[in-house]
Design goal:
This protein is 16% helix and 47% strand. The chain contains 1 helix and 11 strands, in the order αβββββββββββ.
Length: 136
């Protein structure tokens, strides 16, 4: 009798997993676009334009397209700018007018298509952080 009950439980679990696999909707998750690192100049001068690179950008799915790069300075922000990924990197030119040492964080916003649905969906990558030194 114990083996019959175990067999019934195993079958019920298998059936439940199959239903979940068949009927689960297809959603994009935060790892559909993943940023490997942020590259920041060692120090910059206040008011001067500097380049920040988001490198190691990995995209899953053919329909995923990076549209914006978003930055926060010491949790002030995010400020988002149009962006384009090329060869696994997103390069942005930024400017900070206030001398200080900042914790600069960044993430990417992207669009994707879900098969069988109309319109574009939006997603957000993981966040990467680094230190920015702005001298007078």
């Amino acid at each position: 009798m114990r083996h019959v009950v175990s067999g019934v439980r195993a079958f019920a679990l298998f059936a439940l997993m199959m239903c979940a696999a068949v009927f689960s909707p297809k959603f994009a998750y935060a790892d559909d676009v993943r940023v490997g690192a942020i590259k920041i100049p060692e120090s910059v001068t206040a008011g001067q334009v500097y380049t920040v690179e988001l490198s190691g950008v990995q995209k899953t799915g053919d329909s995923v397209r990076v549209v914006k790069a978003c930055f926060s300075w010491d949790f002030e922000g995010p400020f988002c700018f149009p962006a384009r990924e090329r060869n696994g990197s997103v390069m942005m030119r930024l400017r900070t007018n206030n001398p200080n040492t900042y914790w600069l964080s960044a993430f990417l916003k992207y669009e994707y298509v879900v098969p069988g649905e109309t319109g574009l969906k939006e997603g957000r990558s993981n966040e990467v952080k680094g230190t920015l030194v702005v001298r007078p």
